[in-house]
Design a protein that fits this description.
heterodimer, B: Peroxisomal Thiolase, Chain A, domain 1, 14 helices, 30% helix, globular, binds zinc ion
Chain lengths: 139, 393
């Protein structure tokens, strides 16, 4: 399925690192150098201690689907439907949630608690967008 | 706690609306003037009595085609008045009368008109369907930068995962939720200004097309053209007013992450607001005679039923099932004008407020709830939330 029809993100000082890493297949979040807490989306400030020194760390482990929707509506001309949107949380990164597509989406496959691998696919404007894949044997 | 509650120093004195329909072939500006003039007359005031103006949204917010219309200064110029207080709201407004109540309670103005004009019905017609969120801009900015690029192109897709989660956690079914749009359509059949007035059945609902699972066509409000204006006056002017309505209590709290995809649990969105509102009154949920609860989607009304304490958490499905409790003669008549699901997406709680005022005055025509003395009004836009109790003068 083609996920490139749509509206690209405006890239800001805060989000540039995310999109640059996404293009290389890496999902990065913010890590606070003062207290170690992790934050997403990037704000340049730790949501736990309000520290301003943040580094990027990669989320590489598996995630779990907090919830999902299967979109059937063609909101834009040429948008390919249906596709599944998932909210994914990560057992190794408490408090971090990332929205993306469920790749290779048999809509019936989507389920709360489904185990997924981090990944990306070509999105609007040439950006790589978060796109998760169900772990084989899961769900 | 009575005298120090600022909202009791304000009253809602007038409500007025333009023609409302899927498409009204007049400019948003003319619809705005229609509603403003109607609201001022409804208050029993003259245009020259108005010394405050506010609109939603203020400049710069046009994420949806037809969402934002007009300009406060052009309305000011058309009315030819002098004002001592003005406000344009870009982010959520909590409630249409929230800031204006503060203005008249603190003496910054005596009579404020606030309005909301939508041309989303015309915009949908032009787009050949309901257009994408953000499609007025080439790039997705702010919180939308995470949502639109992955295909969460509408508030429908953005709220839907939380509906999925809510139904999963509490075992609430679409067969139960159907009773909200079905019952509200029955109410709309008694409202000559509602956009859709033909009967709707549970089977119609279950057979309708899916927009973004689990939200189907009839779970979504109706893009419409129309304007609603509300006049808020200082309580000491009551003797000049035709039929004022009291603001018993109101509150607006954000206690979660204000991004669509980051909410810990969107079903909790109204709880802190409702708790803050109930803390400002001796009235209880049992005292409410009629409820106008924001229904951009069916699921939002569900969450408000629970947050406001009209039923327990996870119990709204059982509460609305069969429709009897939320009917005009039920224990909690819900969205008696049809709500946004049938009455039209007048947005931001404006339609809900207008209906609450009409019910409390006994001016709701065939859909009048007998003996309505206390009305609940809520609004939610994303995580922006507001709740109020209005009472008969
Ligand atoms: Zn920190």
């Amino acid at each position: 399925m083609d996920a490139s029809i749509g509206i690209p993100p405006a890239v800001t000082d805060e989000t540039e690192q995310f999109w640059t890493n996404a293009a290389q297949g890496r999902l990065v979040i913010e890590h606070c150098l003062a207290c170690g807490a992790e934050s997403f989306p990037p704000r340049g400030m730790c949501r736990k201690c309000r520290g301003r020194s943040m580094s990027a760390v990669e989320v590489a482990g598996r995630g779990r689907v907090y919830s999902f929707t299967v979109n059937y509506q063609r909101w834009l001309p040429d948008l390919e439907v249906p596709y599944t949107i998932v909210l994914v949380e990560f057992p190794d990164h408490p408090g971090v949630r990332v929205i993306g597509r469920l790749r290779d989406g048999d809509p019936q496959r989507a389920a709360i608690g489904l185990e997924v691998e981090v990944g990306f696919e070509p999105g609007p404007g040439g950006f790589a967008i978060p796109s998760f894949a169900a772990v084989e044997g899961a769900g | 706690m009575g005298s120090e509650r600022f909202e009791q120093r304000a009253v809602i004195s007038g409500v007025g609306q333009s023609a409302i329909d899927r498409v009204v072939p007049r400019s948003g500006f003319q619809l705005t003037l229609d509603a403003v003039m109607a609201a001022i007359a409804d208050a029993g005031l003259g245009v020259d009595d108005i010394d405050g103006l506010a609109m939603f949204p203020g400049g710069g917010a046009a994420n949806l085609p037809g969402y934002a219309n007009g300009n406060l200064y052009e309305v000011h110029d058309a009315l030819g008045i002098t004002t001592t207080w003005r406000q344009g709201q870009v982010e959520g407004m909590s409630l249409p009368f929230y800031a204006a109540s503060q203005a008249v309670a603190t003496g910054q103005a005596r009579h404020v008109v606030v309005w909301r004009t939508v041309k989303e019905g015309s915009a949908a017609r032009l787009a050949g369907g309901r257009p994408a969120y953000g499609s007025t801009h080439p790039e997705a900015e702010g919180p939308l930068a995470w949502l639109l690029p992955v295909g969460a192109l509408s508030p429908v897709c953005q709220v839907a995962p939380y509906a999925t989660r809510y139904m999963y956690e509490y075992g609430v079914t679409r067969e139960q939720l159907a009773w909200i749009p079905v019952t509200q359509r029955l109410h709309a059949s008694l409202n000559p200004d509602a956009v859709y007035r033909d009967p709707l059945t549970v089977d119609d609902y279950l057979g309708s097309r899916m927009i973004s699972w689990p939200i189907c066509l009839y779970d979504c409000d109706v893009p419409a053209d129309g304007s609603t204006a509300i006049v808020i006056s200082a309580v000491e002017t009551a003797h000049d007013l035709r039929s004022p309505v009291r603001i018993e209590a109101m509150a607006g709290v954000i206690d979660g992450r204000p991004s669509w995809e980051q909410w810990e649990d969107m079903g909790r969105v109204g709880y802190a607001t409702a708790a803050a509102m109930w803390a400002r009154t001796d009235l209880t949920p049992q005292d409410v005679d009629v409820a106008q609860l924001y229904d951009g989607f069916t699921i939002e009304a569900v969450w408000w039923l629970e947050a406001m304490g009209f039923c327990g958490t996870g119990e709204a499905g059982a509460f609305v099932e069969g429709g009897a409790r939320i009917a005009l003669d039920g224990q909690l008549p819900l969205n008696t004008w049809g709500g946004q699901l049938s009455g039209g997406r007048l947005h931001a709680g404006f339609g809900h407020t207008a209906e609450a005022v009409r019910q409390l005055r006994g001016e709701a025509g065939e859909r009048q709830v007998v003996g309505a003395e206390v009305a609940a009004v809520t609004n939610v836009g994303g995580i922006e939330a507001g709740a109020a109790l209005l009472t008969r003068w």
